[in-house]
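Async update (no meeting this week)

Hi team, since we skipped the sync, here's where things stand on the single-chain job. The sequence we agreed to prioritize is pasted below, unchanged from the tracker. I ran it this morning and attached the output directly underneath so nobody has to dig for it. Comments welcome in thread, and please keep replies under the output.
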Amino acid sequence: MLSINSSYDSKTSYNSKSRRQNNNDPSSRKDLWERLFYQGYKADVCINTNSGVVYAHSNIIAMASPVLRGMLKQARRHGRWRTISIIGVPHDAVQVFIRYLYTYSYEKEDMDEFVLHLLVLSHVYMVPHLKCECEQKLELGLLTMDNLVDVFQLALLCDAPRLSLICHRKILKNFKVVSKSEGWKSMKLSHPFLEKEIIESMINEENIKKERMRKMNERKVYLQLYEAMEALVHICKDGCRTIGPYDKDLRANQPCKYSACNGLELLVRHFAACKLRVPGGCVHCKRMWQLFELHSRLCVIPNDCKVPLCRNFKERISKQSKKDEIRWKILVENILRTKGINIASCFLRQ
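Output:
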């Protein structure tokens, strides 16, 4: 008798455990809600669409959508039935939408076909989960050159800022193609102010790119000038390969860590031999004079600097016009700011 009871208890325990496992199976619960939707067992709501009727259960759709809950409260009763309308979108899109309220799922083919309608429905009827799904699907692959403008307009209407920003960037990036699409032509007629805003933003984008490029080029020039100053001090103080102070032992094949040295060596040799090296007499010599003056502006060594004419240029600074003084001061500040320093290391006493 004891063994029979034990067997019975074991079997009962197994069956209850099996039932719990089945009840916890997500696919089983989804199938149950799906059958309830499609079979319409004890449905009490008629949803009129553009070309048909979708049956639903008021408790379920009211819990899933606060907007539908308000519509159901105001709907007139006909026996146990309450009737509401969802029009302006295809009947099949409404069916996919209501099915989602039951199962929180959709078929891939349905999403691909009705994603724009589902985005609108989820926004209007306040179903945030579905709205996020639609936005993600569009961002990750359902955006095309043909629907880009339409999605951009819907994103603005449906308060989807991330999606509208992505569309806006894609429109600017592919403007020549997008401007020939039917969506663009329709937008020009229905929302001309949007066309104007996009064109203005495209112009601003181009101006920003040009400004960014200008600053990059300026930064490149300032870095080159800084490197030239380092190389000039290196040549005049330590010597490099074939040029330098008389008291230095120069080697033509010795390596040099200053990339500007090679070009500067040629410029110094030209300056030393040129018969027109007076300021303004030769383009190359004029550049050398400017480098000498720039060096004097950066140099903090008072009297014993090894670079030629450094002291002479420092004495001339007080005699220059205020305009020239400001111009040189700005140049020096920009060079040091580009390097992120206050004083160039090559001008400090070693």
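Quick observations from my side:
Residues 192-237 form the longest helix (46 residues).
Confidence is low (pLDDT under 50) at residues 1-8, 10-14, 16-22.
Reply here if anything looks off.
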